[in-house]
Design a protein that fits this description.
Blueprint (H helix, E strand, L loop, with lengths): L24 H12 L7 H32 L3 E2 L6 E2 L3 H9 L1 H42 L10 H14 L9 H29 L18 H18 L3 H8 L8 H31 L15 H37 L4 H4 L1 E5 L7 E5 H20 L3 H28 L7 H32 L10
Antiparallel strand pairs: 1-2, 3-4
Helix pairs in contact: 1-8, 1-9, 2-7, 2-8, 2-9, 2-13, 3-4, 3-13, 4-5, 4-10, 4-12, 4-13, 5-12, 6-9, 6-10, 7-13, 7-14, 13-14
């Protein structure tokens, strides 16, 4: 889910006379695939392992279907009040405001920004894990697998935070377009490397590993409660991997008005989610077949040879997350800085621009305000500290998936479609959509409980501010 369209301000020119819509079903399909595939793919074999050969694949396919179905509903809400001839809404929040009103915008905004911040925390943890894996893999390769190659990720999280402090000083998303493109390329690189590694491992022993119900109580050294919490985390991980709705409206905003954008994006969503599902089921199931119930929480941490390919995969994760971190951080910066600017329009701390000449350039300078320098730095530092205290890859992904799945993927698309299509209460369609709504809420609550419980269990066995592999 690391795609953004470059443009003006928050990503788009709001003047319809200057805005260009040249997108087709194929460009939208490409954007959809890029938007969905991200670091969540690394947790899929572990997620399938927690639920086994029956419920694991069913969860992958079920989340895909729900994602597609609600995407179809959301595409009809892009224009209001008529899905073909109505007014354009350029972002997800614009659609919520136009159909449901300002109160829902506040609630939706809270859910969105919690998710954005949570992803930044998750990316900090994942980056440290990837760097530790590179160090450990190289240590084993050159010193042998009997060598003591334990490594700590604390330093790597701090270094990653320092890099993000520097990148956070870029004015807006439009200034980091190249980073966004590189991030998307890297996400495909490590995904295919991971798929290749698990396919080779599976081929090496020929028969599929794993059990019908996944990780076994007692036999695999876990208790009944741990089995339950990890299975619920796995649901959240899968839901996180399919997160798409937040970017759907922005993708739709790139399309030509003829044929109608909603028809084009329905086809693109079918193709994009279909391709992604095939890929996810392949990597999840082949990964489980290769590792069995011992599938690692992060796919790339389960390999040591060929060391150069494992290193390439983890370096691709690192490069991807360096850029993707800012794609999630910049909207948060923009939101609170806009609020501060309107609240204190005369404050020098917020508005006075300082210029720092850049060496070896022709008159160029780095422009900043004390507000951006201090608050963005403080925000990244706080994010890094939380990551150091909660270094749990799968539990964090599960919690993020639970936060995003019900409100952003199901509740708002369903509620807005009911309003937009004027579906009357208690008619058949209304009951069906509300059943989906309630079911998704139940799954999200279970995933959230499982993830929090999993973190509570793991906190008993870790040292705060110390991450090890």
């Amino acid at each position: 889910m690391e795609w953004r369209r470059s443009g003006k301000g928050r990503g788009y020119d709001q003047n319809p006379k200057t805005k260009t819509e040249e997108g087709t079903v194929w460009t939208a399909t490409t954007h959809a695939i890029t938007a969905i595939i991200g670091s969540g793919v690394l947790a899929l074999p572990w997620s399938v392992a927690q639920m086994g050969w029956i419920f694991g694949p069913l969860a992958l396919i079920g989340c895909a279907y729900v994602t597609y179905f609600t995407a179809v509903l959301l595409t009809d809400c892009y224009r209001t009040p008529d899905p073909v001839h109505g007014k354009r809404n350029h972002t997800y929040m614009d659609v919520v405001r136009s159909i449901l009103g300002p109160k829902d915008v506040v609630i939706c905004g809270i859910a969105q920004y919690i998710l954005l911040w949570g992803v930044m925390i998750g990316y900090t943890i994942t980056t440290a894990t990837s760097i530790m894996k590179v160090v450990r893999t190289d240590c084993y390769h050159y010193k042998g697998h009997d060598a003591k190659c334990n490594t700590s990720g604390t330093l790597y999280m701090v270094l990653f935070g320092i890099v993000e402090i520097v990148l956070s000083q870029f004015p807006s998303l439009e200034k980091i377009t190249l980073i966004s493109v590189v991030a998307a390329i890297m996400s495909f690189a490590y995904s295919f490397i991971g798929l290749g590694l698990v396919a080779a491992k599976f081929a090496s022993h020929g028969s599929p590993q794993g059990t019908i119900l996944g990780v076994q109580i007692g036999a695999d050294g876990i208790s009944a409660s741990t089995k339950i919490w990890q299975s619920l985390q796995a649901l959240g991980n899968i839901a996180f991997a399919y997160t798409y709705s937040m970017l759907l409206i922005e993708i739709q905003d790139t399309l030509k008005p003829s044929p109608p954008e909603n028809k084009t994006l329905k086809r693109a969503s079918l193709y994009g989610i279909g391709v992604t599902t095939i890929f996810y089921v392949s990597i999840g199931c082949v990964g489980y077949a290769a590792f069995g119930n011992d599938a690692p929480g992060n796919l790339l941490t389960g390999f040591y040879e060929p060391f150069w390919l494992v290193d390439l995969g983890n370096i691709a994760v690192l490069i991807h997350l360096v850029g993707a971190y800012q794609l999630y951080g910049q909207p948060i910066y923009a939101k609170y800085e806009t609020w501060l600017s309107n609240k204190w329009p005369e404050s020098p701390f917020i508005h006075k621009v300082y210029k720092l000449p850049l060496p070896f350039t022709k008159g160029k300078s780095f422009n900043f305000t004390m507000c951006k320098l201090v608050l963005r730095t403080a925000f990244v530092v706080l994010t890094t500290l939380i990551s150091l205290m909660l270094p749990f890859f799968n539990a964090i992904l599960g919690l993020l998936g639970s936060v995003a799945f019900w409100p952003l993927t199901v509740y708002y698309p369903v509620t807005m479609y009911i309003t937009q299509a004027s579906i009357k209460r208690k008619e058949a369609r209304w009951w069906g959509l509300q059943a989906l709504n309630c079911g998704a809420l139940f799954v999200s609550l279970l995933a959230a409980v499982g993830s929090v419980a999993g973190m509570a269990q793991q906190l008993k066995h870790v040292t705060m501010l110390k991450t090890e592999l």
